[in-house]
Amino acid sequence: MPHIIYGWAHNIKHSELDKKEQKKAASAMKVSRQTFGNILASARRKLADAVV
After folding, report:
1. Cβ neighbours of residue 18 under 8 Å, at least 6 residues apart?
2. Looking at the predicted structure, is the pLDDT value of residue 7 above 80?
3. What DSSP string runs through 1-52?
4. Do residues 18 and 9 lie in contact, with contact meaning Cβ atoms separated by under 8 Å?
5. In angstroms, rounded to a whole number, what is the distance separating the alpha carbons of residues 25 and 35?
6. How far is the CA of 19 from the CAs of 14, 41, 49, 50, in angstroms?
7. What pLDDT sits at residue 6?
8. Which of 8, 18, 40, 48 has the fewest CB atoms within 10 Å, i.e. is most exposed?
């Protein structure tokens, strides 16, 4: 199981900054694509909440 505490930040990094496809980013984080997508959605909500 990945470290979920920092996982959302790494998801944003892989997805937005590194421009990796979800499948490749999920593989790099050693999670399923679905789990990566779920964490990414949560991360985006957290960032949006922090900005607003």
Report:
1. 25
2. no
3. ---HHHHHHHHHIIIIIS---HHHHHHHHTS-HHHHHHHHHHHHHHHHHHH-
4. no
5. 11
6. 6, 16, 23, 22
7. 60
8. 48
Q: Map tokens 């920092």 to a residue.
A: 6
Query: Tokens 């984080």 belong to which residue?
Result: 29
Q: Residue 21: what residue type? A: E
Residue identified by tokens 């990414």 is: 40
Q: In sequence order, which residues have a C-beta less than 8 Å from that of residue 34 and are 6 or more positions away?
A: none
Q: Give yes or no for a contact between 11 and 40, defined as CB atoms under 8 angstroms apart.
A: yes
Are 5 and 40 in contact, with CB atoms under 8 Å apart? no
